[in-house]
Amino acid sequence: MSEEAIQDTGSQEAVAAPNFLESIPENLRSEPSLRNFQDAGSLAKSYVHAQRMIGRDNVTIPSKSATPEEWRQAYQKLGAPDTADAYQFDNMDDKVANEFRQQAFELGLSQKQAKAVADFYLGQETSRNEALKQAGEDAIYDSEQELKQEFGKAFKQKILGAQNAAKQLLGGTEIFHKVHLADGRKLGDHPDIIRMFSALAGQIGEDQLIGEKSEMIMTPADAQRQITDMERLDGPYHDERHPEHDNYVNEVYRLRSYL
User: Fold this and answer.
1) Three-state SS for 240?
2) Residue 37's domain spans which residues?
């Protein structure tokens, strides 16, 4: 074979790349942590990353069998305080705050996490109270309109009579202001309570009630009953020749002002 042929054949053969592990000391070739490296560049990159991590306060997640103390150490590395008293909350009731501090501490929350949860809770509580207050105001307004429709011009007198009856029968009206109903109203704002004590006031009689006496004002229902009675077909209202006809007509006209 000619020298040119030998040279040509050699140029076509692939040159085998040296194995990376073969280029390092023999006593390190069996190190499992080096088997994933294919070249010096990947080893150098890993080394630089490891150097950057040195000195950082790394957190190791405890195993399932970890003790409470091991979990506590992990929590503290993540920002949890050393004691429950270290948590700081704004605008929270002392009793609720103390209970929440203990719970946050047991869960290993950081101050930032615990405050975020507390602020969310307070926001929800504020929204709920505002909604309840608005619902109560709406319910009170609806109750008032219902009784005004029912009592007509006698509304204020009926309310006062109900209050006086409650004072006389119960010795006071404090209970009506202390008891709150589910819809936000106080007990004394419920129309059924007012109706009941207004009816009791009528049974007791104004002369026996505590409070200033006044001329009784008709309710629309009372006025309608009298109008119905005075407008009977066999009565003076429909008989123009009856001597009481004009009086009946005038009285019915007056009574209609209460409707």
Assistant:
1) coil
2) 20-51
DSSP string, 92-138: --HHHHHHHHHHHHHHT--HHHHHHHHHHHHHHHHHHHHHHHHHHHH
Strand intervals (E) in 151-206: none
Residue 136 lies in a domain: no
Helix (H) or strand (E) holding 252: helix 245-255
* Residues linked to residue 180 through DSSP beta bridges, in sequence order: 186
Tens digit of each residue's pLDDT (9 = 90 or more) over 219-233: 999 999 999 999 999
pLDDT tier for residue 16 given thresholds of 50, 70 and 90: very low
Residue 204 falls inside a structural domain:
yes
In a domain, 118, yes or no: no
Total number of domains constituting the chain: 3
Let me know whether 226 and 168 are in one domain.
Answer: no
Assign 3-state DSSP to the chain and report helix, strand, coil percentages, each to 5: 65, 0, 30
CA 41 to CA 46: how far, in whole Å?
A: 9
Quote the tokens at residue 226: 């009298």
User: How many residues does the structure list for the chain?
Assistant: 259
- Predicted local confidence at residue 46, as pLDDT: 76
Longest dimension (CA), the chain: 160
Of 182, 194, 188, which is closest to residue 156 (Cα–Cα)? 194
| pTM exceeding 0.85 | no
Tens of pLDDT along 73-97?
Answer: 888 888 899 999 999 998 898 999 9
| Paired tokens of 211 | 């409070």
Q: Do 192 and 157 share a structural domain?
A: yes
Amino acid symbol at 30: S
